[in-house]
Amino acid sequence: MGHIVFIEHDGQEHIVNLIAGQTLMQLAVDNDIPGIDADCGGECACGTCHVMLQQKWFSVANKAEADELQMLDMTPERSATSRLSCRVKITDAMDGMAVHLPEFQM
């Protein structure tokens, strides 16, 4: 079974088993990853599940749609590889992915 590593702002790592078909947000919530608030429950309506992917993994993730990009525009720590974890569907190709969490969620 594969894994995904969630890395908090302070460098603390959380390694969880990858579950293809879930979203990164659901995987984080199910594994009590600190820093993923997911206030809207995955409806792309709050931006509290913001993550930054490493460049090599950014291209593996499905592309962001307009509603996600609008929410990310309001995120103060947005980077070129920012995503809302509620919109990133996990695939087996993401085995070993590192997901960085911002210092603060919106």
What does this structure look like?
This protein has 106 residues and is an alpha+beta fold. It has a single domain (3-100), classed as Roll (Ubiquitin-like (UB roll)). It is built from 3 helices and 5 strands. It has a 5-stranded mixed beta sheet. A hairpin with a 5-residue loop joins β1 and β2. The protein is globular. The chain starts with a strand and ends in a 6-residue tail after the last strand. The mean pLDDT is 94. This is 2Fe-2S ferredoxin-type domain-containing protein. Residues 2-105 form the 2Fe-2S ferredoxin-type domain. It comes from Acinetobacter modestus. InterPro entries: 2Fe-2S_ferredoxin-like_sf, 2Fe-2S_ferredoxin-type, Adrenodoxin-like, Beta-grasp_dom_sf.
- Stated plainly, the CATH topology is called Ubiquitin-like (UB roll)
The end-to-end distance, rounded to whole angstroms, is 33 Å
Order of helices and strands: EEHEHHEE
Please provide the count of β strands: 5
Named CATH architecture: Roll
Computed CA radius of gyration, to the nearest angstrom: 12 Å
pLDDT below 50 for ≥5 consecutive residues: which ranges?
none
Please outline the major beta sheet: 5 strands, mixed
- SS strand fraction: 15-25%
Mean pLDDT: 94
Q: What is the assigned CATH homologous superfamily?
A: Beta-grasp domain
Number of helices: 3
